[in-house]
Amino acid sequence: MLTEVSILPVQPSYSINGHQIFAEVLNEEPLIVKFQNVLSEDECNALIERSKNRLKRSKLANQEVSAIRTSSGMFFEENESPLIAQIEQRISALMHLPLKNAEGLQVLHYEIGQQFKPHFDYFKEDNPK
């Protein structure tokens, strides 16, 4: 059972199921927090290894390939493996956000010169889906 941890007020560190995460407030309004040690080096290496053969050219929200976004990426399925479930649950507890309200865990890969140009994510008022 995970212990839920509220992100506000921001603490200098959080312990989630024995995993220590450090937080640094970079800006108060709007609130910008830098977290360190959210994933261990072993977890990062495992994610990289598991995603290598699944990376595909990144697309825009409308599924079009564009020069705006030139990286490669992939999404893991929710609870796809014990590792993915552990990471998702840790982030959920840290952010105090239920998994049902979160996007899937994504890995992006950028070669030198690749980019994701600045953009705005929003919903049109007449179509919030």
Automatic annotation (TrEMBL):
<keyword id="KW-0408">Iron</keyword>
<dbReference type="InterPro" id="IPR045054">
    <property type="entry name" value="P4HA-like"/>
</dbReference>
<dbReference type="GO" id="GO:0005783">
    <property type="term" value="C:endoplasmic reticulum"/>
</dbReference>
<dbReference type="GO" id="GO:0046872">
    <property type="term" value="F:metal ion binding"/>
</dbReference>
<dbReference type="GO" id="GO:0004656">
    <property type="term" value="F:procollagen-proline 4-dioxygenase activity"/>
</dbReference>
<protein>
    <recommendedName>
        <fullName>Prolyl 4-hydroxylase alpha subunit domain-containing protein</fullName>
    </recommendedName>
</protein>
<keyword id="KW-0479">Metal-binding</keyword>
